[in-house]
């Protein structure tokens, strides 16, 4: 990769955070772009594979799903296990965490949710 990738997400915490933690902890080159909540989003999302965020793009890939992005970065940084068994255990933990996150959505996206910069 000649240029750092671009990682886009809303101006809040969410599905992008595990990706950012991995990128930061492994010195993976990227630029973080906070997508504004605006009417312009209806046009912007047409440029993304599934029209959702997070979205990651570099010279090699254009990815639109948080787990796909996370696994891509893990493979590129050699942190996705050194055997099939290790990779399966990592997948089990990741999928369990995302099941829990899905269960927490009603609380995370409640009207009184506080946005952080």
Describe this structure in words.
- This protein has helices at 17-25, 41-44, 66-76, 84-108; strands at residues 5-10, 30-35, 55-57, 62-63.
- Strands 2-1-3-4 form a 4-stranded mixed sheet.
- The protein is an alpha+beta fold.
Provide a short characterization of the protein structure:
42% of the residues lie in helices and 15% in strands. With 117 residues, it is an alpha+beta fold.
**Any idea what the radius of gyration is?**
15 Å
State the total count of DSSP E strands. Answer: 4
Task: Tell me the strand order in the biggest sheet.
Answer: 2-1-3-4
Q: Overall mean pLDDT score?
A: 87
Helix/strand/pairing class, anyone? alpha+beta
- Most strands sheet: 4 strands, mixed
Unreliable spans are: none
What amount of the residues lies in strands?
5-15%
- The dominant shape is globular
How many helices? 4
- List the helices and strands in order: EHEHEEHH
| Proportion in helices | 40-55%
- The rounded distance between the terminal residues' Cα atoms is 29 Å
List keywords for this structure.
117 residues; alpha+beta; 4 strands; 15% strand
SSE blueprint:
Blueprint: E1 5-10, H1 17-25, E2 30-35, H2 41-44, E3 55-57, E4 62-63, H3 66-76, H4 84-108
Parallel strand pairs: 1-2
Antiparallel strand pairs: 1-3, 3-4
């Amino acid at each position: 990769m000649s240029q750092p990738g671009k990682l886009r997400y809303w101006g809040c915490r969410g599905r992008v955070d595990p990706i950012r933690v991995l990128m930061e902890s492994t010195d993976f080159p990227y630029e973080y772009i906070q997508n504004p909540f605006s009417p312009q989003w209806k046009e912007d999302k047409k440029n993304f594979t599934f029209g959702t965020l997070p979205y990651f793009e570099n010279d090699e890939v254009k990815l639109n799903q948080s787990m796909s992005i996370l696994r891509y970065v893990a493979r590129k940084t050699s942190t996705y296990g050194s055997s099939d068994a290790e990779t399966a255990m990592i997948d089990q933990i990741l999928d369990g965490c995302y099941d829990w996150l899905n269960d927490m959505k009603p609380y995370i996206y409640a009207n009184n949710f506080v946005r952080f910069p």
